[in-house]
Specification:
By secondary structure, this protein is of the alpha/beta class. It contains 8 helices and 13 strands. The chain has 2 domains: 165 residues, Rossmann fold; 81 residues, Alpha-Beta Plaits (2-Layer Sandwich), CATH 3.30.70.260. It is 29% helix and 23% strand. Strand 12 and strand 13 form a beta hairpin. The radius of gyration is 18 Å and the shape is globular. The N terminus is likely disordered. The chain binds ribose-5-phosphate (R5P).
């Protein structure tokens, strides 16, 4: 997973300062555990996110099921990797085909703006994340302070999952969208948790699709318009803009944990 994430680079300005007190993993664990402790109750249908932060939420669900503190939980994973982690923890799994409504979904994010809009998909899991999280009554986002930005855009590229067929044509059409503001499309290469291919091979998503990362020089002015325009490009499957979906964001910062509600 970490190697797949290496394609888009994030600026870790604030987090380096925090790391002198708590490591990045300790911060991720704090918010992952808190999200489960605060929002997951026995009997719920729970969406399990993907990534290095969501990992700790999945771990916590597994712990609480094993101890008997939680019972009668079923969960829906948002990637093959999360499915494998959940199975290793004996978390009972179902799918959207049998459970179309979830009580809660918990996941990380690559960027969070002041309106709690997100960029997701740095780990390539955005389609399964979006279909699951759009079906949840509550969507809880867990991040460390480094993911909080004034506006989506330059701090982390926007991933778009696309069908492989004539990918260069689709990339040109994405670059030409008015709300794309001249962002440059880059086909993601390198390892993926799914196909375990290293080097210059094109990264393949869990859905056997390609990932195109849109690199912005300036803040995205209108995420709603951009999401709408991307959805109309033939050849795209889903994009990493999660607009108007967040219920709460739990943030680990140098002064402890804060919660922002939508
Ligand atoms: O595809 C990956 C997901 O959208 C992740 O939730 C996102 O990339 C954040 O991952 P992490 O918690 O590892 O920074």
């Amino acid at each position: 997973f970490h190697t797949l994430r290496s394609a888009p680079q994030r600026a870790f300005g604030t987090s380096l300062k925090m790391a002198t007190k708590l490591t990045q993993d300790e911060l991720k664990k704090m918010v992952g555990y808190k999200a489960v402790d605060d929002h997951v109750k026995s009997g719920m249908v729970v969406g399990l996110g993907t990534g290095s932060t969501a990992y700790f939420a999945v771990e916590r669900v597994g712990q609480k099921l094993a101890s008997g503190e939680l019972t009668d939980i079923v969960a829906i994973p948002t990637s093959i990797r999360t499915k494998e982690q959940a199975e290793s923890l004996n978390i009972p799994l179902v799918t959207l085909d049998t459970h179309s409504r979830l009580d809660v979904a918990i996941d990380g994010a690559d960027l969070v703006d002041p309106a709690l809009n997100l960029v997701k998909g740095g780990g390539g899991a955005l389609f399964r994340e979006k279909i699951v999280e759009a079906s949840a009554d509550k969507f809880i986002v867990i991040v460390d302070q480094s993911k909080i930005v004034d506006a989506l855009g330059p701090a982390f590229p926007l991933p778009i999952e696309c069908l492989p067929f004539c990918i260069e044509h689709t990339m040109r059409n994405l670059e030409a969208l008015p709300a794309m503001q001249g962002a440059k499309a880059v086909l993601r290469r390198g390892s993926s948790a799914n196909n375990q291919v290293d080097g210059e091979e094109i990264a393949i998503s869990d859905n056997q699709c390609y990932l195109v990362d849109m690199h912005f020089d300036e803040p995205i002015k209108d995420p709603v318009a951009l999401a709408d325009q991307i959805n109309k490009v033939v050849g795209t499957v889903e994009h990493g803009l999660f607009v108007g979906m967040t219920t709460s964001v739990i943030i680990a910062g140098e002064d402890g944990i804060t919660v922002k509600d939508a």
